[in-house]
Amino acid sequence: QVQLVESGGGSVQAGGSLRLSCQASGYTTSRGCMAWFRQAPGKEREGVAQIGSDGTSKYADSVKGRFTISQDNAKNTLYLQMNSLQPEDTAMYYCAAGGPRGCTVLLWGLHEANYDYWGQGTQVTVSS
User: Fold this and answer.
1) What is the pLDDT of residue 48?
2) Nearest to 57, CA basis, from 38, 35, 37
3) Structural contact between residues 6 and 80, judged by C-beta atoms closer than 8 angstroms
4) Is the dihedral of CA 15, 16, 21, 22 positive or negative?
5) With 0-12 CB in 10 A as exposed, 13-18 as middle and 19+ as buried, what is 65?
6) Which of 64, 70, 115, 121 could form a disulfide with 92 if both were Cys (CB 3.0 to 4.6 A apart)?
7) What is the pLDDT along the chain (128 residues), one digit of tens a residue?
8) Largest Cα–Cα distance of the chain, in whole Å?
9) Environment class of residue 12 by beta-carbon count within 10 Å: exposed (0-12), middle (13-18) or buried (19+)?
10) Mind giving me the DSSP string for 34-51?
11) DSSP 3-state of 94
């Protein structure tokens, strides 16, 4: 049974930083693609960043240069380092896993439908 458990969310002021973690069990993070999505109140869930088994990464335009996705395959853990946070980054952040073995973000889109397994989410709130 696959389980993804996020942690690291919280409340920060604009300009601050947070590091989200996603511990995977029943799924090997190096197998496919891993991603972070977020959903703000009243909005649809959107892709934030994804990383492939080959180490390639892709980001939404809104977070480029501020967020960094990484993974520690020895710990089976996915991370999202978020710097220069802004109020518009306020959302529930979800970890997701999916894609074929050997997944590369060069060929695998950052779309909800491409991800099979999801965590419960961790809340990030940024105040101005």
Assistant:
1) 98
2) 35
3) no
4) negative
5) exposed
6) 121
7) 999 999 999 999 999 999 999 999 999 988 999 999 999 999 999 999 999 998 999 999 999 999 999 999 999 999 999 999 999 999 999 999 998 988 999 889 999 999 999 999 999 999 99
8) 42
9) middle
10) EEEEEE-TTS--EEEEEE
11) strand
Q: How far apart are CA 7 and CA 97, in angstroms?
A: 16
Residue 93: both structure tokens together: 């952040």
Share in percent of the chain as helix, strand, coil (round to 5): 5, 50, 50
Q: Which residue has the tokens 């896993």?
A: 97
pLDDT of res. 30: 87
C-alpha distances out from residue 6 to 11, 54, 95, 128, Å? 15, 23, 7, 25
Phi then psi for residue 75, to 5 deg, are -100, 0
